[in-house]
Fold this protein.
Amino acid sequence: MALSGSGIVKVRSLSDRKNSMRGLLYISPWILGFIVFQFYPFFLSLYYSFTNYSMLNKPKFVGLKNYVDMFTRDRNYWQSVKVTFIYVLVAVPMKLAFSLFIAMLLNMRLKLINVFRTLYYIPSIFGGSVAVAILWRFLFNRDGIVNQFLSTFSIKPIDWLGSERWALFTMSLLTVWQFGSSMVVFLAGLKQIPNEIVEAAKVDGAGRIRVFFSITVPFLSPMIFFNLILQTIYALQEFTAPFVITGGGPLKATYLYGLMIYENAFKFLKTGYASAQSWILFLAIMVFTAFVFKSSPYWTYYQDSEDSK
Amino acid sequence: MKHRATKTLSYLFLALLALFMMYPLLWLLASSFKPNQEIFSEMRLLPRVWTLQGYANGWTANGQYTYAQFFLNTFAMVVPTVIFTLVSSFLTAYGFARFKFFGKKVFFGLMLSTLMLPNNLIVISRYLLFRDFGWLNSYKPIIMPSLFATYSFFIFMMVQFLRGIPRELDEAATIDGCGSFAILIRIILPLSKSVIFSATIFQFVWRWNDFQNVLIYIDSVSKYPLALALRMSLDITESVNWNGILAMSVLSLVPPSLLFFFAQRYFVEGVATSGLKG
């Protein structure tokens, strides 16, 4: 992909200064948008997190009080942290494993692969929509189709959404069901694995499992890395499902972090407090991403060391 | 022989799995044509009695507004957002992909970092900002940021794509006397059809499905997009009037589905290029 022949470089350097202004001109809408809609709100929310503020009156600086309250007084907070953790730990690995499995099946040279790929992708285009959340409520209703199906194996009806034990899991299933984009990412990665390497390994007597762990996984590690970060960040922010399907219940069993921030900010109007909570979420995401990035040289493998310009 | 057997098995498995994955949606579609008493009473997928009662009842929503209004509202919000996103993101991506300028690395790094900026973090202060602008209870909080390329995922996606277009084409056009904007319009744009389609589809579907933002910003029922209308229907549905809400759910999924079927190639390409190539 690198096309910088020496002739081209010379032509480019002639118009460097002009280019510089032009480049800035082209990205200027973004610079403006970034400052007004992202950078400023970002620091504003940091400021709010140190204030007692309810949207209606003026913010009053209270130092670390919001953070201290959150960690020491608010029982709902730890409940939310707990269920969010469980949710991420269940939903994300399940989704990645499932999408990798399907991608590998689809990567076999079969006809109709495109048809299957399309079918498997369909649930993902509705991801996060209210319609699908409503559908989930119906499917996992006590008298719903899932329990009816299970009853044919004489399994007693399960209260999927009404019991503390199952509600979070039911929500995770909705997440896993939308595995399409991770699948496509994996599929693209699988296509890049040189067939000669797999064949050579087979000639050397490697079995399927060996090929999977010694060739497929190392080759796919950048995609695993990408999907892991992206899906974790998405999952940490899940909002529509708990809001529409369970309202966070029963007994806060599905009180995911995104829902908690929303309720504190817009229902109880505790703007400062909710901002502090959102900052903890942000820090958690940063720590997680930094950890994955730092650890990635040990477990990701890149085919070529082509730098990103 | 063995090879063939494996293939047949794989097909069978893939087909069964596809059916399993699609079943919830099939159930949704079929149940929207059932009378209410049939919906929870048995496992049979197809209705015994076909009825459009759900569509008729659901459409009138709360009596004051129909779903015609909610569909129009959704389009009025989503279509400008998509167009503005495309234009502003493409210009920005062009700037990043093709020019050297002061602070480029920093800007690009900042742009990438906003990909990981949780919406939850800025949504509260943005709300207050938009309140001061007088934008609450309108579509401006959704539309205006798209004018300024703040959906940075698309910039990233387009930069990745533009890097794959050989620079020699630009250079040749420069020598022929084309300015940078002419290059963008005449050379780059025609080659970028696929990434533009991908971005269109993604942004359309995401904005169409978006619930959290519209929940925060839009109050009056007359301005409700579908996501809010559906939730309202769910809240006011009496305990047995199920087919209405199911029917409206089906209808709300039609536009994204149509887009997906007509342009699914770009969908898949979009996912594949956004995170990988480069």
Notes: The longest strand of chain A covers residues 51-52. Residues 1-10, 305-309 of chain A have pLDDT under 50 and may be disordered. Chain A touches chain B through 106 residues (CB under 8 Å).
